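EI: anyone free to look at a 425-residue chain?
SC: sure, send it
EI:
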Amino acid sequence: MLARKSIIPEEFGIPGLASRMPRKPVFRDRVNKARFIAKNGSCNLAHKNIREQGRFLQDVFTTLVDLKWRFTLVIFSTTFVSSWLLFAMSWWLVAFAHGDLDPVRHNGTHCVTDVKSFTSAFLFSIEVQVTIGFGGRMITEHCLTAITVLIMQNIVGLIINAVMLGCIFMKTAQSNRRAETLIFSRHAVIAVRNNCLCFMIRIGDLRKSMIIGATVRLQVVRKTTTPEGEVIPIHQIDVQTETVVANNNLFLLAPLVICHVIDKHSPLYDLSAMELQCSDLEVIVILEGVVETTGITTQARTSYISDEIQWGHRFGPIVTEEDGVYSVDYSKFGNTVKVTTPRCSARELDEKPSILIQTLQKSELSHQNSLRKRNSMRRNNSMRKGAAAGGERGAPEEQLRHRVHQSAVLQPRRRRPEHERRHLT
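SC: here you go
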């Protein structure tokens, strides 16, 4: 049995119409992934399965500096106590070999006076290494072995002091401590500047001592796949900034806005506002410079993911002049204001410059309309207030008549009795 042919042509049916309707681009939801650099600048990277652990012992000083404070203090105390015990054993053996511990056998000359037990040998070891010298115990010239042990302990003690004190000093004066006072804005913004889409962040220094030769580097890190099918999980792309192009160093006297022009060489060139929210890129900001007071190179880092990039915003001003002095209000450091910005990508703006012109014209018209509405509302309010004030001063009698008339109108009529109505008829 043949199927009946539909009366409606296929091209006008629901499947045909649905196939010809323009479809909006569908963006996949961005997968929440771990960021490479945290907001405080620490690297979110774990090293596993390192087989050549001996490489860390070849650079003992750097290993000690990189350790946490609790481990450093434990190693510091253990090293000194171990050296005191080691040389206390040496002094006890010298005294035992020379017969100083046996008051009957000794021949009247001691290697070290008043060393009669291991406890006294331990106390003498501490006195020699830290140069306390209480005076009760001392070495004599009758024992060459004791003189040799004294020289060895002094040399070993100086080496331990130099290494451990240098390690403590380097940990105290680490460059990352200075980086704590270098701050970045909580969010990055994208807005139009000089007729171009720009990616902007704000940096600042809380200390009065400056960072000499400060430089800022931007990198975009994301997962990419090459045409050959190779997956690069951490693909780093350098991003140029206006400050780097004009001058290699920053004069970080007051907070600065670092601007990156999104041009055809930028990794953000093809991203629109919607695509940016769905992307998994991460913008890493690195601020480097030399500390003016110590001369140590410092580095501060932070990063911005797509959720922390505000499209169509601009940083507000925070530097004002008060009584001949420039004042910086750090409470407004991360404040942004919303501005008119096209939602399309920088590529589309380059291909169709009219989009930017139309957007700016619409913004100007809307701004003018809002100003007109505000002015008209202010005029109406002022006229109402003036009319009310003039009416109350010039015509109190008219107001009284008007109120009496309203009360008479609103008052219900009294119904007449039946005999009065018959009389009227």
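EI: The CA atoms of residues 88 and 125 lie 5 Å apart.
SC: 👍
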